[in-house]
Amino acid sequence: MLKKAAFASVLALAFLVRAEPYLVHSSIMGVDAYYHMRIIEDLFIHDALYAGGRTTIYPPLFYLVMHIIPLSVQTLARTVPPLLSASVICTFAYMLRQRADVAIAGSFMLALHPALIARTYFIPELLAIAMAPLLYAWFVDERSLRTVVMAVFIPLTHVFSALIYLGTLVTVSGRDRRVRFVAAAALVALGAFVALQEPRIQYARPSFIVPLFMTIAVYLPFAALDRPRGLKGRTLAIGAIATVFLALLLPREVATSRIGAIGALFVCGIASFGLVRIFERDRNAFYAALVVFLALGLSVGLARTPIYTQPDIEAADHLGGMSASPVMTTAGHLVAYHGASVLIDEYAEFSPHYDERSEALYGIVLHGSTDYSVPSEIGVRYIHVERSVSFSRAMRFSCLYDDGARIYLLPPR
After folding, report:
1. How far is CA 42 from CA 35, 64, 67, in A?
2. N or C: which end of the chain has fewer CB within 10 A?
3. Is residue 337 scored above 80 in pLDDT?
């Protein structure tokens, strides 16, 4: 009974930390949420400017699940993220269920993992993260059929997450030929899917070493004190190693919160055994560690605020109804969700013209450039600047709308 109460307390803590910004601000959190809200309403984006005119297709499972829920997209974007992110705690505890003390300790670490809290948005990778512990739990329990089914479903959630989870599974699949074959086939198919969309890779910068430390280095040292043996131990160890390696290799945004969130189950899973060993040896050190985790989690959770304010949303809605002409905007996902075609929709890895368009946008908005050739060639007529961005040369343009967020008429070339 005591262990059940402890786990229930951890689960409640996880939900409250994730739900707090949604409850306080009553707003949709994160830039990417508006992109995924848009896909729920139309699985295939045909915006002529988006991704250089190509149709970029996302794995469909998250959107199909959201379609089944009888709520508006806006309501889903506010309510689903904290619930789905907290559900990760449940599947993670199931993965470690053979030892209740380890499951509770690991759940506490995962509940307060800064990267997982930071990624609590309306995004498909939350579904992938929630499903992954089941994949490994069934694999370790030698339930091949369930493992194979999950290995098929994981790629339908989120591309980058699935590459990590399937890659780990292939590495440790050992003598189970059926699991290894299906996982490898799914991994190859997913790799081909990514290659067809021709994403571009930008590498991490040293300035992001602090958030990397927060998401990984505080947790992993506990693995040196104790770690699981056998197949479960190898799975968690290989996943944790892959998390660190990819965090140092991949783009800066991925290197911090995203890879930290995807790899959190490995890092917390392997570290939880060391945390339990500390509890057995030195209670004071154990409680000190809990305070550190609590401080990290709360510092991230309580600091989260909406990217877009109500004036930004109202301006985007106003702009969407003004004209079908393309828009130069610093809030691409938001404005595109409200019906406008945008110069940049913020997914640089899928846009062949991203660099020149980004340079043109921020050259005009932030540096007062008078070179309008790039937006003019595409037919851009309006400049939209969100509330938090300062416009260096506002007097050069006709202001059509100003309520914190602003809309300007681009001068003729």
Report:
1. 11, 11, 11
2. N
3. yes
